[in-house]
Amino acid sequence: MPVTYRKRLSRSASNKNLLRESNSMRVYFHNNYTTTVWVAIMQYDTDACGGHGGDWATRGWWRIEPGQEVWAFSTTNEYCCAYAEAADGAVWSGDYGPVYVYQHAFDSCVNIGASDAIDEVGMFLMDLPWYRWNPIATHTVWLNP
Question: CA of 103: how far to CAs of 2, 88, 111, 119, 120, in Å?
Answer without folding.
Answer: 16, 17, 17, 9, 12
